Structures are given as structure tokens and as C-alpha cells.
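A further point concerns the way the authors explain their paired sequence and structure data. An entry of this sort, consisting of the sequence and the corresponding C-alpha cells, reads as follows:
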Amino acid sequence: MRSFLKQLFRPPVFEDVEKTRQAFLVHVLLWTLTTVPLPYLVYVIFVAHENSNRAIIQIALSEIINIVLQYLLRRGYVRLTAILQVGALWLFFTLTAITGSGIKSEAYFLGYALVIAIAGFLLGRGGALIITILSITAGFVMAYLQIQGWLVPRFVSSPFTAWFVSLILFPVGAVLQYLSASALRNALARAHASEVKYNLISQVSSDYSFSTELNARGEMRLNWVAGAFEQITGYTYEEYVSKGGWLAHLHPEDIEKDAQALEILKTNQQVVHDVRTYKKEREEQWVRVYAHPVWDENQNRLVGIVGAVQDISKQHDAEERELRRRAMLEKVVQLGKRVTEVKDLRTTIERIWHGVHDDLGFDRLGIFLYNPERHSLDSTLGTDNQGQIVDEWHLWYPLSEIAIFQRLLEQPDGLYFTHNYDVENEIGEDSEMYGVKDYAAVAAWAGDKPIAVICVDNLMTRRPIRNEDMEALRLFGGYAGLAIQNAHLNSALQNELLQRQTFINELESKNTELERFTYTVSHDLKSPLVTITGFLGYLEKDALSGNHEKIKSTVERITLAARKMQSLLNDLLELSRIGRIMNMPENIPFEEIVQEAIERVRGPLETRQAQIKIQSNLPIVYGDRVRLVEVMQNLIDNSAKYSVPASTPCIEIGAQENDQGQNIIYVRDNGIGIDPQFHERIFGLFNKLDTKIEGTGIGLTLVKRIIEVHGGNIWVESELGKGATFYFTLPNSSQTV
């Protein structure tokens, strides 16, 4: 039994040394993955009962796979076993995540990371890359399914369960780290023992490798260098040693850091650290030191250091620039929030000026607003030669005279930057721009509209404008464009509200005037009715005298006149009610209004055999249904009445949208047409162009009144003999009356 267990736990050995080494790694990982789940199994059985079935199945499946892989490994299928191990482990964690908490599960965050590490360790960077791509893809799919509600988390781990999961995964990570460290130490030992390894290291042209001996007193002696040593230090090996070696060329502020690294090496641990050193010309540079301990097992102490030194000055400078860039961009975001909070245009411009001058640190700047109406740039705030803000709101410049700005406004990412502005633009000595070298101008856009141009220079301090400065300015220009646009919109909104209030006041005044006029006209029209009624008394005498024909004719005329007067009264009273008596506005499909209006005048339309064409997909409008039906009823009825005699009336009803997003409804006919000189007159009271055609002459006045109460306009386009088209605007479903 003992020999069986010994054989079972012993890693397989093959003739190929590399294959044996790989088999050892796979063997250790397999036994680790076989044993570490057992504590978790005990935990779920005795503590976390609700997840016990799922956990037992998972662990049982895992153990079966590990046994099969052990068999394949001992049969010599080392590479296949490694691939299957990584694949099975990845699939295990994927199924665990899907049946557990999905993207938020420990299987995703910890398990996938462990599988990627194992894949890199056993299969190399190609295997790690494939597993990484699979893991990211699986995570995206799980996240998408959870967002869509198709993947519902079934188990949410308790804190203690999460800890037990880490009890499984962390030891595996520790074993992996141990194997990595062992492999690295073995590799370094082989490199130290073999001159060939040193020669390979020395081939790295951007680094130099070194070997240092350390005696029992802690004294170090550089005994070997190779590679780009002279390129990095400026010395030959002999010169470098004679000048004091490493410590003599170390930056004073980094001596302590280097001493700390040495202490770590004395614990038989490798170290990577960045320090500053001096070249032969005393030029400061940043280097990265990769130091590996040479350990004497017999003396149990550090006896040497081998490693490489890499010049990272450019990388360090890039990192410094990136840090400055990130800090600047964070500042820009905060500035952007400040400027977009303001609603007033002048205050917005002032905050933009202070943001560019005070926070971004440019000496001078000018802010110009784009004026599309006169195609110019209107100045707002500038800077004098002492760096003080200057009010220049009264100035403006035609865009055609400034080619630089014209090019800037042609595209959203418009940028002009030069290191030699005064020479390139032939600036004279009397100009305030004389002597300017670094100069930049950026376009500020809002959506697809150019809004402004911001120009900067550093004339006073002569500081160069760096790339990170330009990036910050361009980003801030985006915020500035939005802030200015918001200020414009707010100003326009305030003006619109003021105009609307003025319009309401005027409308109320007109309503009052119209009521007075209507009631006056009504009174005047009632008098003839009384007179007509009086004549009926005289007719009684004719009746007594027996002149029946005369009586009948007179009565018909009086009755017709009375009815006409009554019709006028009704229309006038209806006109007086518009604006005072309104039904509750609502969103109405305009096609319903058209159909209802047609039904009201179907009799006259059928009599004249009128043809009506209605555009499909008419808009939804917002208004008083009853009044809007009256509008269409009058317009359709007029189109039929004023048709060319002996012809078939053709009436077309449709809609279109103008540049402001308003609905424009039209009613077009092929009738007798209207002389342009009467286009305005026809909307007045009692203005009938043809007195022979029936009607009171108030219909179009009613139509105009209803449209205006709805906040719209009505007009006609027509010529004699060419029909007429009546247009009117109405609010759409997103607007209000």
C-alpha cells in the first residue's frame, strides 16, 4: 500500500528532460486541484446546505476529470494533458459562474484569473492569450444575458462561502507561484553556471547584464558586464570600476532605495527597482535594475548578484507626461462642470476665460463667438500684455479676412498650432502679437455646429505649449462649446417666454376688442330683423284685401332676409366665442379631423361630385378637436363652392414639416383661384369675393381666428384661374397650445 501511494504521488519521468519538467508541473497542479476542493466539500455539506447538491456535483465532476488527466499524464501525453487540464478548468469555472452568480461570481473574478495564469504557465503566451480572449468573451456574454434578464443568478454566495472559495483558489495560486519561482530559480542557476546564458543576455542591445560578487563583509565587486554597458553609462568597464562603480554613480536621493533592494536580495528574493544614475558626462538618467540573488546554500547567504540594467529614461519621461496629462484632464473635467452650470452668456464666457488662463495656465487668450448670420467672429474677452482680462465685446471680424479661423470652423476637431507664429504670419513690431512663438487656436463645437474659437499663447513667460497642454485645451474647448450653446439656448428661451407673454397680452386685448365689435355688429343686425318683423304686420292688411300673390312674394323675401340675418348672427356669435370658449386640447391624429370634416359637408361634395385626395401618414396634432374640425370643414366647403363651373372639383389635403419642426397642413384645390391682391382681405369679416356664391363671408375669419388661438398662422397661395392652396401651422404632439 505504501509503495502504491508513493508511486501514485511520484511525478512521471521521461527520457526528454523538458518533457519531464513539464510533466512535473502538470503533476503538481493536478494533485493540487484534486485536494484543495475537499475542505469546501465538507463546508457545503455541513454548513451551506442550500448549495450542497450543486457543489457535490461540481466537485465530483472535477475529481473525475483530474483522475482521467492523471492517467493520460502517466501514459506520456503531457502536452495533451496540459491542454485538457486548462480547458477543463476553464469550462468548470464557466459552468460554475453560469449556474451561480454569473458575472459577479467568484468563479469569474478569481477562477478565470487562475486559469489564465495556469495557461500561461503550462501552455505559454499563446495559451494564455486564447484563454484570456475566451474569458473576456464569456464574461461579456454573461453580462449581456444578465442585463437582458435571460440569465438569472441562482446562487448568491455568503461572505463565508466566498472565503471558502478563496480557500480553494488561493492555495492553487500559491502552488503556481511556487512552481514559477522554482522554475525561475533553476533557470537563473543554469544561467549563472553557463557562459552561453551570459552571452545570450548580453545580446540585448538596450540593456546591459552584470555579475557582482559579495564577500562575507558585505563588500561588492563588479566582476563582469556585457551588452550596452558603454552606451548606458558612457564608461568602459575599467573606467567605471576605477570611478567607484555603482554606488559612486547612484543619485543621492536613490541610495536608500538601492540599499533596501539589497536587503531584499539578502533574503534570497529577486528585486526589480527603478533608480537614477549619472552617466560619464554627469547626465542624469533613469534605469531599471533586474537583480537576482546568487545564493550559497552551504553558507546560507548571498554571495553575488546577477541581472540586467535597462535605460528607461524615455519610458519614465513618458510616464511623467502621462501623469501630468491625467492630472490636467481631471482638472479639465472639473472646469467643464463649472462652466456648463452657468446659464448667462457673459458669465459663461468669463468662467471659460478664467479656466483657460488660471487653471490651464496659458498667458494670454481670446474668446471669439461664431456669428452665422454675418459670417463673422465676434470678440468677447481678451487678455492684455500683463495677463489681465480685457472686455472686447464690441469688436467683430469678418471670417473671410481670417483664413486660420475659417479653416478651424470647417471641422469639429479644428486645430491650429505653431511654434513660430510671428514669423509665419509676418507680424509687425507694432502688433500685440509680435514676438509670439507658440500659438494655438481650437474650435469649440456643440453637436454639429461651430460655436466659438479659443486662441492662446505664452508670450509673457515664453513657456512652450506641450502636447498635454494642447490635449487639455481641446477637451476644454468641447465643454466650452456646450456651455456657450446652453447659454444661447437659455437666452433664446427667455426671449421666447417674453414674446409669448407679450403675444398672450396682445391676444387678450384683441379678444376684448373682437367681443365688443361682435356684439356691436350683432346689435346692428338685430335691428333690421325687428324692422322685417314689423313689415309682417303690414302684410296682414294685404291679406285682408285679398292680394294673395303679392303677399306670398313679400313674405318669401322677408323670410329669406331674416334667415340670412340670423345666419350672420350665428357666425358672428361663434367668432366671438373663439378664444373664450375652448374645449380641452388633446393629441389628435389629423386624419380623424379630416374625415369628420368631410362627413359634415358630404352632401355638397357629392352634389358637386368632388374628388378628395388625402395624404397618408398625416401627423398627430395638439389642439381643440371641435375647432379644428370647423377649420377643415370651412376650407373643404370653400374649395368645393369656388370650383370652376362645369368641372370636377379636386381637393388635396396633406401635411409637411418646416425647418422649425412645425406641422404645415395644406388644402389645395383646382378652383377659380384668388387674385394675389385679395390674399389678406379674404380673411376679414364679410369679405366675399363672389357675392353670388352662398355664405356669410365669415368662414375664413373663423378659420384664421381658430388657427391663431392654437398658436399657428394661416396664409394662401393662389392666382386667378390656377386654384388655391391654404396653408396653416399647428403644434405637433410634443408641443402645447
